[in-house]
Amino acid sequence: MKRNFQFLNTLDQEPEEQQIVGIQLNNGLQVVMLKNQRTPIVAVDLWYKVGSKDEQPGKSGFAHLFEHMMFEGSQNVGKAEHMKLINDVGGMVNGSTTQDRTNYWEIVPANQLELALWLEADRMQSLHVTRENFDNQRATVKEERRLRIDNQPYMRVLYELKDEIAYSNFAYKHSVIGSMEDLDRATLQDVRDFHDLYYRPNNAVLTLVGDFQMCHAAELIQKYFSPIPAGQSIPPVNLTEPPGKQEIRFNYEDQFAPFPAISVAFKIPERTHPDYYALEILEKILFDGESSRFYSRLVEEDQVALHVFGGQDGKFGPGLFFIFAQLHPQKHFSDLENTILQEFEKIGQDAISKQELVKAQNKIRHDFISQQESVRSLADLLCFYTTLSGNPEQLYREMSRFEKVTVDDLQRVARKYFSATNRSIIEIYPRKES
Amino acid sequence: MNNVLKKKSRKMKPPIDASLLEFKFPELMESRLSSGLNLLIIERPELPKVYLRFGMNVGQKSDPDKRAGLSQLVANTIKKGTRSKSYSEIVQTIEQVGGELDTLVNEDFFVIHAEFLKDYVKTGLELMSDVIQHPSFPEPEMEKERYKQVADLENEKSSPDFLSQRRIEKAIFIPHPYGTYKTQQSLQEIQHADLVHFHEQFFGPQNSFLVMAGDITAGEAEGLAGKFFGKWSPDNVAVREFPNPVPLSKQRIQLVHRPGSEQSHILIGNILFPRNHPDFVKMSLLNKILGGGGSGRLFMNLREEKGYTYGAYSSLLARKESGAFIANAEVRTEVTLPAIEAFHEEFDRIKQEVVPADELKNAKRFLRGIFPLQNETAAAIASLALRQRLYELGDDYWNRYQQKIEAVTAKDIQKTAQKYLPEQGYVIVIVGDAEKLEKSLQALGEVEIYDLNDQKVN
Hints:
The complex is a heterodimer. Chain A is an alpha+beta fold. Helices cover 43% and strands 19% of the residues of chain A.
């Protein structure tokens, strides 16, 4: 029988180490804590349930641009001072934006927990934005776009085109970093509205993992976060994606690519779908390590590719299962494409050995242990499961779901999703010298 | 500098705890096998996993003349077959139990690292020892790896990071082999016998370190190490001497032409002392203040004030024989020149003005405070322990590290800056579109232009 995770109102006594404890404030903020005293440090991780999926057409890139603004000052904190204050006590700090969520985190020496909480509460309560800072950060984000995408080989496909081609719904069709034109269009009023709507305690999850006393932490959290008023409820975003009706193809000329490459993406369901577990195991069988099917066939045996990687793309909503491979210079593009499509077909048709399944499960178990080595990685996982299902303890239940997957499940799932009508293919060619 | 901050009256002061937490570097158990292999054991039983790290004092700098890329080829081929096992048997055995085993080689060292869940550590160490002691370097596997490396030269050419790094290292380090880069030709020169010879010449128990960290007791670790490495014969490994790099006497401006480039990648650097030099800690503090992370002076100037870039930093290249100080930013093409000026402003300032007491205090707190954060996992501790031995940093280095930071004064920082950031000693490397950049860069002096193959074209 599955026990539902209970968020408490207050904490009366200090729980034991290893126990995940949740508190919910009156304003809706969910707090999840896990004590781990291996090293005198603590990780603070704050997830806002807003990402590029929440953006409107014409305003792409806004969630990420806003993440930058969160470092530009709030009522009691000056421009760029957040980062400085954390660094000055020997801590690390950063933020990131995906399609589904935006996160902010600090790792600090154990005695500086209060500082991290105070800083996060201050900018949740009151962002301080000026025209000057906004223009400055917009310029910074444009350089980030050039650095990561426009000035690099293959990145336009991997970060943007893959989704643009595969999706029909705007929510996931457009990229997190957004277009230069849309960034130019963003206004200071957009920044204020965005904060008012999404950066509210009822739309956030805060986790603490590390060396601290939970009762003390709970008091600090009450002190700093409970005065922040709840916001209105967040308008739901429609993420539904119609199933593919026919194969989609696209050719792309890449100005920096040294060799042709291919991207193939199949539509898969949302993260909470039961097929997730079989798809994850298929990912391991196909892509993980040098004995994986794609690496050993494409790179070692047939030598049709120089590099290959792929797997599930990690979205909360309808996702993609993709492969990216760079063509071996002495082979034809069709050799590479045919081999890839054959392998996807084969895994649904021919028997998968029990040994291959066990290998994938062993790797998942190994990675599950590895993820628990750092407090920051643990904090992120707790935020993830709380956001996904409201239950941070799902972290400890996942392994048993992977252990229940059978060879038959794998084949059923492979046949269901790895079909011709469900895929989009991008052929990438180097730009011809003019 | 900061209008927003000045105008506003601060209502609340940040709640900072003034005390500094003491952090003791985890205890290491050290022993030596009869073969001469040095064993380091770190017991961290919290999670059922063990890290294995085998480090040797040989690296890319030992590649023979005209055969640059040999050590990399050895690293990539070493697990592709042993006297008794094929590549697929090796990889299958490791991956069937969810483990990992990889090799890496840098300029100075050769490292084979592996991680296994506790139950499989014996399997893992047995394989690791086989790969290290009895590699067979199958010829077809070597050819495959050679081909991949040749092709990867093309991939690297498309990366502005690689282009800028290669150019600056060549400019700074030649005639030392730190400035040697593999080419298609040097890779083609390599014979199968070279791999075998490299292994015979440089692999041996003496001067090598095996670190075992995680859920394993010292007794278990010694038993396993003795079983799998105890019979390794203690041959004397070869030692090579290298020419010293020559410090630059005048500024050089080098432009790598990357047609169509959307940005300029700027690197500014010069040569520095070896990693075990006593000034390393002072230089680390200087680097933190100047260009370490999102609160360094370079970041504040080039990103937060001017909006030229996504990030501007500086870093110390740690090398066994001679390191480097390198500052970097990727900026939009039209501000390349003012960005270079901004770097110089900050270099000058740290030489001319004594660092304010607060800024130094904060830099110290950062370096001291970050130390436990960086030593959270068994893998990180294993890596630091190995680094101490390979770089010959001295006994007890990590335990004295925090005191060393505390002892540095503001005057020391200024002197260090004056000594190691000489006015004329920089190389400025820009990777970008020469058609848009060459004219404006001439304001700085003579501009040397290189193509994507690093051939000088003017």
